[in-house]
Prior knowledge:
The complex is a heterodimer of chains A (165) and B (459). By secondary structure, chain A is of the alpha+beta class. Chain A has helices spanning 2-19, 45-51, 76-83, 105-111, 144-150, and strands at residues 29-33, 41-43, 55-61, 67-75, 90-95, 100-104, 114-119, 122-123, 133-135, 158-164. Chain A is built from 5 helices and 10 strands, in the order αββαββαββαβββαβ. The longest helix of chain A is centred in the first third of the chain and has 18 residues, at 2-19. Chain B is rod-shaped.
Amino acid sequence: MLKKLFFTLLSLSICLSIYSKETPPRQKIDVTGLTLGGKNLKISVDELEKNLPLVKTTIFDPYNKNEKTTFEGFYFYDFVKKYAKPEVKTVYVKAIDGYSIETPIETMKAEKMILAIKDQQGYLAVNRMGPTRVIYPIEKMIDKDLLLKIGLHWVWQIKSLEFRK
Amino acid sequence: MQLKEYSQNALKSSIRIIVVITVLLSAIVAFSYINLVKNEFLQETTYHNRFQSRLIFKSISGLSKALIYLKDFEQQKEFDLLIEAEGMIQSAHSDYKIFLSEKHIHGEGYPLSPKLEFTFIEEKIAEHLDQEKIQPKDVSIIKERIYSTIEEMYAQEADIWKSEALRFEEIARLRERNRMYFYFMIVFFIASELGLIYFSLLRVKLLTRIEQQQEKLLISTRLSTLGEMSAEMAHEINNPLMVINGRIKLINEALKKHDDIDIEKIQKNVEIVGRNGERLDRIVKNYKLLSKNGTQDSFEFISLEKIFNDLQEITERRLIDANIQLTIENLNSKIAMPVKYVQILQVFTNLVSNSMHAIQDLDHKWIKINIVYTSTDVHFHFVDSGNGISKDHLPHIFNAFFTTKSSREGTGLGLNISAKIIQDHGGKIYYNEHNPHTEFVVILPRTQAQYVGPGNEIS
Lengths: 165, 459
């Protein structure tokens, strides 16, 4: 009787784990370049959750029909402070589909850029622009002119982050 | 064709040409606009096609990378490689979903094919990955799906490319057409401007010529009238001169009889000489008046009495010679009219002269001038014993050069000029068809007419 219950619970938990949106994405982020330890890293989302303070922000997502979305993540600058050497000046961000952009540290600090890992629906899987994406914590609707200026840095489906001088 | 008619025809022609050019230009502009809109639509469609094509290629690229990871996994058995492959498939799925939404936005509903649906059900892969129990055959199945998905996507992309190629051709044709319309527009614009300038200059030229001709005609009329008048004047002067000469002779002969001078007779002859001298004076004054150019005169108040007295004096001799009776009815001597005196006298003299000429061969010869007063105008009815003007001639009687007299007798300008003078006075002149006799009516406004009492000086 107990064995049956155990296996039922096990299969249920497996099913739940499959369909649960609370499961962080399996994809990891490659961290290369001037890392603190001098070695290349492969960091998962749950590892980031453990090591960095979580922040929340609500924006009108310009890449999702301006839908009001509450994101959770970390300040990009906090990420750089945690994993990069002090002399790092820029971060080369590359996405799964090959898109890449170099983001200066100063811009990150000034704009308070966030690496988002969750929204109200749960963890951001790759098909929902995860495992992590860059967002700006702008509370109002972003107009076309502003988006033209800052849109380059809104990288989603981030695959790797390279620390550069 | 008269100059004025020519000018009017030229104006009508220029208006017609301008209307035609305007219509053509409007049509060209309309076609150009339609082409522009088509062009914009095609360009927008091209942009979207290219964007969709890019999305498909991104998706294919993601799937191709996933294949590489799966092949590496088959060799190296490293679980992380499966995770990378999963990420690539999800990224490809995400791009393909954007492609579908793009197509949907532009009215091309494109359902996700069952094959692609199957490939992208990452739950299947997730199930295997969670259990870390993926089998080689599972990897082969996934790879097969990816291969067929890529094939299908290439086919879709080829469709887009084909429609794009067709559009290129259409765009090229439209561009050519637009260029042609543009050149036409320029040509028509220049042609219409030149046409406008040409006809404007032509009109100015013609109007100037018309004015010059009218001036010449006025002068020639006056000269021919003067010519007529000088013959008449010579005739009129002749009579009193003969009388004066005759009486001077008698006085001379009487004075020669030193002893038997009849003072009474001499006095009587002197009186006759004096009267005829005054008559001569009046004749010369009247002809001087008629020969004057009154166009530059200003309006002044002249009593009706003076006007008609002078009229009778001017026409008296000819009326007597022609045995025509002239009567003036309802003349109110207390009324003064604001007129250009010389011109009005010329008009009235012309009307009487025309009547005299028309009835000279009739048995019953008379001319009546009946004056009718209303609150706003004074109507002068010039009626003669003639039988009226023929209906064929009626539309032309006020036209310049129209005359029923021979070229020696008249230039046909009298009524034309009379009409202009009356128009200048704010009045009207017309022929009354309802009178069995010949009747011309002159209407002059009495807006400034005023009564004149005794003691008031009239200039």
